[in-house]
Prior knowledge:
single chain, about 450 residues, alpha+beta, five-stranded mixed beta sheet
Amino acid sequence: MTAPLRIPFPVVDEVSRHCVQDxxxxxxxxxxxxxxxxxxxRLRKAFLEALRRHPRILMREAPGPWYRRRYEWELTDEPxxxxxxxxxxxxxxxxxxxxxxxxxxxxxxxxxxxxxxxVTAPGATESGADGGxxxxxxGRAGTVTGTALLLTLNHTALDGPxxxxxxxxxxxxYGGRDNSAAAPPVRPSGTPRADAPDTPSxxxxxxxxxxxxxxxPPGPRRGNGLLHTExxxxxxxxxxxxxxxxxxxxATALTLAHWNREHGARVRPLRITMPVDDxxxxxxxxxxxxxxxxxxxxSPEELDTSDLPALLHRTALRTRALKALPRPQLGHWAVLLTxxxxxxxxxxxxxxxxxxxxxxxxxxTLLSNIGRIPYPLDFGEGAGCAHAVxxxxxxxxxxGLTFATASTAGRLHLAVRWSRALLGHDDxxxxxxxxxxxxxxxxxxx
Length: 446
């Protein structure tokens, strides 16, 4: 019998593996709402075939001795576990599925490190309890009117864009319709500058998100809290030098400055981590953790301004310059840490120690904007196309808060996710409302 093929953990996977915590699992959640219902047998078959077409997902962490120099992925021909589930329908089924995604990561030791749940509860409105999701002003984010597909990824193995690619392949196999990615939107023309004007120093210790009022026992204390909401896409004049992503970045910075000011936190610069993904969106897309992280700084002075057009313009220059800089995914320090100079146990202990020591310099929060969902996610007759897609990124301390956005059918889908050690459900709802307010303030009058 041929031994399974093994692949050494890439840098991002290894750093994540070193820092695994059961209290706050590193999961990515993608939630897609379909107008119709899905056949259980067909969905299982389509998802399994999608996994086979993207073999980098059919894998598990290979066992090894403590003195090994590398973690390795072991590729498998078939799943070790049933990856598709169908929770019993009911008023709390969607909330329960979201809670599982926040609290329990698919294990790395069983192939694949991903699970799909199909929640069917026509017309059932969720309560918006912590770990679930609350609706926006129109309440649509908390309502299932057909089927909600929840794809949970272990972030040590996979990221959000890779999960979306798998979901698109599943839709194509299930519905028999083309789910190729649409052409990317046209960005403002011009050559990015090597540096943006008036950029705050990257060496200053950034602000932390001020502590709110975490929910007291017997509320859940494991994992993250999560709120979903649906907002209008922010308007911007045609030909603007900034993008919707820049508006989202400014809204995030203004939200955090507002929150910290309300809670009497010390005034410090903000740094917002922004994932950048340069991978193709077709079937050749490399599956795994393929995004690189850049940090966008904001000084307190530039956030205390009524000249939002100038702030948007500076942010656009800043983000474009950062995106253009060649840089390893997690920076040069991560490349050095993951070099096989010693056993993974020793390197893991060093990585965790350095992470704790560097906590005061970690960015304030993370804004992950996938932008317009590039795939139709068309499951064919009976199920239909996804009319809403949310995804959320982990919110482990010391950041303790992340914002994630995507747009579908001309609407913006926002997920606010937080560490329960830092914030409570009411805090999450207030941050969601602040974000909506400041995003609206970035709009120019049509």
